[in-house]
Amino acid sequence: MKMIGVDVGGTFTDFVYSDMESGTLAIHKVSTTPADPSKGVMQGIVELCQQNAIDPSEIAYVLHGTTTATNAVLEGKGAVCGMITNDGFRDIIHIGRHQRPEHYSIRQDIPWQARPLIRRQHRKTVPGRIVPPTGEELVPLDEEAVREAARELAAEGVEAVAICFLFSFLNPAHENRAKEIVEEEMPGVFVTTSSFISPQFREFERFTTAGLATFIGPKVDRYIAHLDAALRDLGMTAELRIMASNGGVATPKMVVEKPALTLQSGLAAGVLGGGWIGAQDGRDRLITFDIGGTSADIGIIVDGKVTETDARSTSIAGFPLLMPMLDIHTIGAGGGSIAHQDRGGAFRVGPQSAGAEPGPAAYGRGGTEPTVTDANVVLGRLAPQDFLGGEMGLDVEASKKVIADLAERLKLSPEEAAEGVLTILNANMANAIRSRTVQKGIDPRGFALVAMGGAGPLHGAEVARMLSIPEILVPPFPGITSAMGLLTTDLKYDLTRTQFQLSTDVDLNRINGDLDRMEAMLTTQFAEDHIPPEAISFSRMADMRYQGQGYELTVEVPAGLIDANALETLWENFHAAHAAEYGHAFRTNPIEIVNLRTIARATLPKLGALSAPAGGSRDTAFERKVQTVFRLGGKLESFETSVYARAKLPVDEEISGPAIITQKDSTTVVPPDASFRQLPSGSLLITLGEVK
């Protein structure tokens, strides 16, 4: 079976082709086309097929990680949205909760107030009320009021509508009927309901999640339709699958219905790719460190499992998101990050990026700001003949000029300014990793750092040193690891039902009934995707807390019928999870089941182990000597550094740094006090000296 994985980044779009039967693997990169990312996608697929004599009609799957939804939210360039909600509650998505992003700041940025997804004039209210605890109707829905609200929204030019009623997670009848009415009055407009997008309690988060889906829905719909049509025009009959933020892939139909699934789409693929790389070398405790042109994305894998976010910390651009999502932390730090002085004169790097256009000054496309890429050029870590395998030249003089201008403003030498850019960037990334490890009780010294992305191998060793991480894994194709991650996952859907049941009074019939109904609904969904029931596997999770707590922990629910014995196992799972998270458990306290979640998977063909590297020798891999600047012991020094071609490196032979290893999709830097060797899997293992 032949498959192509496509990951769209801020600067480059990456491609990997795999023939599962022959083991053939091919990679490719093109510049991202920000105005219409599908153009870059199609250009890359055409070039990849032409360069490798691949018949497009033989491709079975195209798996795609997209940034369309994420960028729309980050840039505030979504649809003109409207909302219909209960009388008296139009401002829920403005007020939010009593917790603020920064508790003690009087000048903080509150995204849902400063940059509302749905402007107040487009929020309409109607009579009607569903109430707890069972979702009975207290006030009938005023259908004529819904029609009038829809007509007003149409007159105001609204392009998408979210239907958000209180307690719809208990009974979606009012939301469903309102959706039918709006679709009658506003044909062709994207309409969704909060109970369809996220049937969970917490109305602020549920409403905001529906608002995010509405904000990005029309753009995602257009993009997927355009891309699918372009694939067909190329003569491809491949099944298109889109990476979802829960770590699985979804069909175009599901993505169009639930566009919020694609928030952090490509980032999830990167973590999966990093986990797959680690597994090839028997490592299951990993920190994935993916640096592209615009951002650095960090994921944690413990005992082979990718950690997921919880309801209290899942967000995108500051907006809470009540959907399953891999725990990925992103900061504005990449090869295109711009070095500058802030208004107080402090030396900063990022989060602003030069992106793909114009890009760093080194790209020769008109960039005039000093970037991380330019700093690496000035320090001798990137050379024109090595970049993208020599397919893209670098303007060394342009890099020297912008760094020299920065150095003059900072009253430093060009080398000191360039090294300062890298030190600040590396410190920012190390702090981001600490926030996901040390601050959560995880010791990063027991992990390996997987340095990937186009710029990850340039910075991995120095970031690892800041965290006392002893070893760094550099994948065989670090620049396209996210694209490879797309070929390691399954079709995956989730459903959630809110419970609110105490361990002192559990309704087993309700629990088993909800679990059975969720499995049936997921089976029906997979049937629409032409997946038979026997190909589906299920797992169940529960969000739980001690009575009186405000947030939950997610634990595994035993398989099969839930009876008294299964409940005891469930309670014990929660006590253990609480002790692991907080250091203690209250075994005599009542436990509350808040949500039940069912996850369904259908297996897709997967990338197999890569062919062992052919292996060469140190002499055949050696290309030249260059002068490269490093800081050791607080002193800036220039070192004679060996440059090696990765494709010709020997296997399992230790080579001391300093060294630069070149390949088409990335460049790896090994500091002077480190060594590296190529493993039989094809990954590079960098070992740092004097790590404590």
From TrEMBL:
GO biological process: glutathione metabolic process
GO molecular function, one term: 5-oxoprolinase (ATP-hydrolyzing) activity
Signal peptide span: none
Domain Hydantoinase A/oxoprolinase: 206-493
Acetophenone carboxylase-like C-terminal domain boundaries: 516-674
Domain Hydantoinase/oxoprolinase N-terminal, first and last residues per copy: 4-185
Source organism superkingdom: Bacteria
Pfam families reported in the protein's UniProt record: Hydant_A_C (PF19278), Hydant_A_N (PF05378), Hydantoinase_A (PF01968)
GO CC annotation, single: cytosol
Identification of the protein by name: Methylhydantoinase
Organism name: Pseudodonghicola xiamenensis
Phylogenetic classification of the source organism: Bacteria, Pseudomonadati, Pseudomonadota, Alphaproteobacteria, Rhodobacterales
